[in-house]
């Protein structure tokens, strides 16, 4: 789960990380009111969307005249902001962050992530802050400093010392940098974050380290422990179909293909997408209906899949364990009739009462085809949508 910049900064400030003064605004007049309360001669108006690259796209404006805050906010609110991370469809700006300008001496990059390959936490930093870190990593990998932290040991002074040494900080700089890292790490661990990114992290002319921008990503499986953080979720920033799926306890992620997938089990869903790709097709989504594929869930899953205008065919791949395949097949038929499926549908059932399930599918009178195994299912749905 992602949150907005203003939410991230509010959270970081509670952990002792220094951030510029500022507040969110939902209207031009509110933006003007916030600006008047900031003790500054420079005001920054920032569009709040869940995407990077806002500055290059016109979503960040630095102003030296407070009279410009209101019209700037007015032009920004409601605009469709297109960045390299939003895709061509962009995102509608519904709130802006009004922030006091900062006195910048130097910009750095700093982030903390979970590295699943090493089962550890990694500090990633660079003296090239404010830039595309992927570009820096590709063109100047030597400027990226990675410090691996054993989660049992936790953050130690020597971890921070590696960065201080690489950055060639003076003792005075190191003394101020260390508390920043410790506070950020504490926030990362205690909120069950999967990533915190501060880009840029700035050093001001008075020697302070300040998070000029901030991004949080939280492990959704841990949100039950953080009801306060869960409330920060902004459904407007997520795909509407993903929001709809979550309401029915369905795990759905939209992709850019044209074969809709309905599967029970995350591992099986990944295998299904792989085999579709292997046979020349492209999956349109990841959709896991879970272990209890009820008729209601299957019906809702059909609605979500067919709401995607790019879907030209649907592959249903169900393994019946405790849930019998004949019960699942009946649910598929009922759901297909209710939704009114107008694209080819191939169903592969395996497990308890699989043969009975296939009979139900074949005798349904619907344009639904059963498959003997996963390879057969992939071949049939790819052929059905006309992929050669």
From TrEMBL:
Pathway(s) the chain acts in: Carbohydrate metabolism; tricarboxylic acid cycle; succinate from succinyl-CoA (ligase route): step 1/1; One-carbon metabolism; formaldehyde assimilation via serine pathway
Gene that this polypeptide is encoded by: sucC
Domain ATP-grasp fold succinyl-CoA synthetase-type: 2-202
UniProt xrefs under Gene3D superfamilies: ATP-grasp fold, A domain (3.30.1490.20), ATP-grasp fold, B domain (3.30.470.20), Succinyl-CoA synthetase domains (3.40.50.261)
Residues engaged in binding ATP: 46, 53-55, 99, 102, 107
Binding residue positions for Mg(2+): 199, 213
The EC number(s) this enzyme carries: 6.2.1.5
Pfam families per UniProt: ATP-grasp_2, Ligase_CoA
PROSITE patterns, per the entry: SUCCINYL_COA_LIG_3 (PS01217)
Organism ancestry: Bacteria, Pseudomonadati, Pseudomonadota, Alphaproteobacteria, Rickettsiales
Record's keyword annotation contains ATP-binding: yes
Leading EC class: ligase
Biological role: Succinyl-CoA synthetase functions in the citric acid cycle (TCA), coupling the hydrolysis of succinyl-CoA to the synthesis of either ATP or GTP and thus represents the only step of substrate-level phosphorylation in the TCA. The beta subunit provides nucleotide specificity of the enzyme and binds the substrate succinate, while the binding sites for coenzyme A and phosphate are found in the alpha subunit.
Protein name: Succinate--CoA ligase [ADP-forming] subunit beta
């Amino acid at each position: 789960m992602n949150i907005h910049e203003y939410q991230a900064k509010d959270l970081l400030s509670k952990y002792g990380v220094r951030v510029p003064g500022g507040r969110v605004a939902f209207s031009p007049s509110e933006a003007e009111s916030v600006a008047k309360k900031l003790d500054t001669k420079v005001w920054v108006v920032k569009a709040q969307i869940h995407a990077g690259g806002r500055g290059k796209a016109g979503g960040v404006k630095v102003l030296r005249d407070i009279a410009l805050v209101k019209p700037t906010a007015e032009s920004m609110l409601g605009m469709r902001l297109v960045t390299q991370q939003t895709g061509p469809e962009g995102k509608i700006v519904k709130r802006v962050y009004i922030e006091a300008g900062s006195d910048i001496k130097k910009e750095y990059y700093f982030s903390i992530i979970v590295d699943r390959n090493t089962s550890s936490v990694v500090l990633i930093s660079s003296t090239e802050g404010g830039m595309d870190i992927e570009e820096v990593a590709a063109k100047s990998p030597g400027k990226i400093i990675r410090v691996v932290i054993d989660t049992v040991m936790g953050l130690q002074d020597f971890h921070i010392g590696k960065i201080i040494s690489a950055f060639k900080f003076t003792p005075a700089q190191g003394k101020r940098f260390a508390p920043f890292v410790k506070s950020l790490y504490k926030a990362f661990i205690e909120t069950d974050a999967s990533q915190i990114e501060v880009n840029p992290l700035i050093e001001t002319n008075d020697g302070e380290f300040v998070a000029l921008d901030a991004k949080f990503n939280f492990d959704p499986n841990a949100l039950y422990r953080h009801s306060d953080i869960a409330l920060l979720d902004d459904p407007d920033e997520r795909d509407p179909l993903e929001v709809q799926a979550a309401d029915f306890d369905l795990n759905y992620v939209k992709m850019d293909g044209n074969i809709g997938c309905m599967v029970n089990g995350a591992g099986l869903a990944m295998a299904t997408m792989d085999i579709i790709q292997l046979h020349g097709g492209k999956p349109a989504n990841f959709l896991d209906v879970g272990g209890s594929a009820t008729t209601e869930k299957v019906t809702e899953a059909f609605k979500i899949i067919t709401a995607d205008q790019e879907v030209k065919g649907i592959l249903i791949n169900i393994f019946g364990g405790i849930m019998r395949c004949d019960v699942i097949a009946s649910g598929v038929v009922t759901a297909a009739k209710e939704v009114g499926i107008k694209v080819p549908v191939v169903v592969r059932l395996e497990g308890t009462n699989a043969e009975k399930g296939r009979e139900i599918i074949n005798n349904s009178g619907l344009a639904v085809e059963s498959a003997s195994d996963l390879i057969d299912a992939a071949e049939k749905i790819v052929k059905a949508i006309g992929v050669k």
